[in-house]
## 1
Amino acid sequence: MPAPNSRYSLDGVWESGIASAVGYLLGGSVLVLIGVNGADLVPPLPGAPGWAWVPVLLLGCIGLVFRRRSVPVMLAVTGTAVVASMLLGGGIITYLLLFELFYAGILFGSPQVSRAAQTAAVAGVVILPVVSGLSYGGWPAAFFGLLQAVLICLIPLWWAGSVRRQSDRAEQERQRAETERLRAERTEELAELNLRVAVAAERSAMARELHDAIAGHLSAVALQSAAALAAGNPDLDRRVLAQVRTESVQALREMRSMIDLLEADDGPDAVPLDTASGGLDQLAALAGSARLAGNPVDLDMEPGLEVPVLVGSTCYRIVQEALSNAVRHAPGRPVTIRVREAENLLDISIRNALPRESVPQDGVPAAAAGVDPCRSGNGSGLRNMSLRAGALQGSFSAGIADAGEDGAEWLVQALLPVGSPADRPLTQEIH
């Protein structure tokens, strides 16, 4: 047997059909016993016993037990009792059972059953007066039948329909509130996920900055000091010491800049972490630092070059990392830096000659491949350069180029979009 329908659990409506059945049984019995009865809707069958109302009322009340659990069962059982009551002269019993038949069918039935019960109630208002008029003859009987039809058909139609509409609205509001609650939970989960992604991206950006800025300067300090120790030249020593101090101060300045950015409040004017330091105007200083480390550097940069700040900062970081790799993996070998703008693209290329012995059979520099563990890295530099170029929708490549009798060259190349002049609210200009 289906579980009770809890959809219409309203104040004043009994949860259990047993309570309703007992109430109708007691009420109907009292009304009949004290003599309160009404005219039958149709003349009863001849010879109907006077006690016939007892089994009819019991049958109807048994059907009412299922008024909430199974409305079709209630309609079938109680409907049978209503027909029997009409034929056996049930009087007031007929009215009570017919009233409850319409009320429970409209309120507790499925949408299809409810609509059918409403249609039957409306039809009863038309049919009952006609039946009464034809059965008893004359307009008075028809008018009295109309009054009875209003009481047992229209009142339950209005009452049950009103309660059901209110219940439907309450259910819709409950479902809407549940939907809003679920949407709020999903929004909160999405916001938390976005926060995690943002934190991870910020950590990755911080790691790149620390690697490119601090590690780059410290690598320059180590390589320059090693070159000075190997040369044994007092003049070179002083120049190297001066450059070491410059690199150290610059590293501290960039670290301070990063700390300030991390401590600053977010806002529409917040400076991106990638633009904390570095630009095209500092490429000459990078070249000078590499020269002091022992690598001849030729910087070929287009004069009057104007690029957005973020593009300039990315160019600086790529050149810085490429020079650090050149000094580390190809000490003393010449390096050529070329920076040009063409077709709204900043073309950056860094070439450094490699010793013949540093190129194994598979075409990968020996130092980069791990032949010299003292000079090899973990590959994060190339990865960071590629990520920086990709962040600007640019391209990046690195590998062996122009292998010949004079030795191979390691080529690092990046193409960074600079956009049209209208898209450059923040720019750097090099004279």
Note: Residues 17-184 form one domain.
## 2
Amino acid sequence: MRTRARIASTFAAVAASALLMTGCGGGSDDDGGNSEPEPTASGSPEASPDAAGGEVDLDALQGGWITVAEADKPVILGVFEESITVSAETACTGTIDADASPMTMSLVCEGDGTEFTKGTVTGLTDGELTIEWASGEEYAFGRPPEIAETPELPDGFPSELPTELPDLPDTAS
């Protein structure tokens, strides 16, 4: 139960980070409002390759990821063991083939979504994960920012889930 809560809180943190990142504008004095996307690791001269697609370890992918350049439509990716979830305009779930070289992903998406049904890990460089999707588009993902602390539950909020459920009313005619 605690593992599920931890996973849920990780994804909630990733989603909250995505909302915060998409809401940020150029109103501050720092470079955070720069309208030009940051260069990806593959285009950055100071980037040193950590692992090519065939050399990425599944353990390094565990947890939450968010696109680094698509701030107008962020894509959130979550990896837990060999399961993967992608949240964009549609939600997709699937599995990772960690034995493939390079590592591949097969997902099923809600509705008519097909953009994220197949993916190939092309690298993990300086903490930036790159995946090429079957559409031919390559997305760069980074780790979401750390959240300082988890808020406390209000007084009187139940801390345990009920163990017994009441009987449902008989609706048979």
Note: The longest strand covers residues 118-125.
